[in-house]
Write a structure and sequence with these properties.
Elements: E1 2-4, H1 6-11, H2 22-34, E2 40-41, H3 48-70, H4 80-93, H5 105-110, E3 119-121, H6 125-132, E4 142-144, E5 152-155, H7 170-180, H8 183-193, H9 209-220, E6 222-225, H10 235-250, H11 257-264, H12 286-289
Parallel strand pairs: 2-3, 5-6
Antiparallel strand pairs: 1-3, 1-4
Helix pairs in contact: 3-4, 4-11, 10-11
Length: 299
Amino acid sequence: MLWTNPKLLRQAGVSWNKSTTVQTMIADLKKIKAGGKTPLCLGDKDVFASAQLLESLILGEVGPDGWTKLFSGQMSFDDAKVKSAVTDYVTLLGLVNKDHSALTWDQAALNVPQGKCAANLMGDWAYGEMVNKGFKEGTDFGYLAFPGTSDTFLFVGDAFVKPADNGPNPGAEDIWLKTMLDPKVQKDFNLAKGSSPVRTDVSLDGFPPYQKAAAQDLRSLKIVSSVAHHQGAPAEFARARRPHRARAHRTPAGTDPRVLRWLLLQPPLPLHRQESPAAPDGAAPSSARRPTRCCPACC
């Protein structure tokens, strides 16, 4: 979800809805920056935060069917839509807070209702964080699906796994799993977390507007799994691509955008190999291969 500060958006003359495009969002964020405010909060000391931003842009370009094709080998990462998403990602990196690599996801999310930035992309656990800190939905913060993704539920699921064989206490494991799936526990837990019950027979009475809408979306929209959270692809995939994303973050301000796009579109590296491949003609990747600073979120 894209969490927003309603006051900052109003001051900038910005109004977003589910029909808002990425290009409109970028133009509006640039307008907010020109007004002296931080447009987009990012806290990628937790490395998944920047990965979520990139995957949301890709999902918005290729759609849920394209997402499935992309991670089943039926669509290439060289596809024009993926390249377009990466170009937008590079643009958005130029609109985030300067201290992004020093902030955790929750610190960045809380900057939205505190008025320190206009928007933040984060999962619905940010809702629980903001509400539990006393901020009010609709007043201190608003929300909408990330542009281009309103027809898709990008899923991140937390699970408890029972060993198939040789569990230390199978009876207790069964009791625990049944307890977690009890409708009352599902309701109480998700109300506190800001998330949606996985059981579709859990009553949504008593849930606030955002959580009711999110739960209905989970029950009705196409579901795709997050790669940033190692669910749409194995963790090895994310680790193999992380060096390229890390180098893109480490490049100093003013770096040729072609270098950043080139880094992000490189094929996954073998896990034991860290050096960069040769740069494309016309680009100057020396600062990308030998960064002067190391982003804590990426190292």
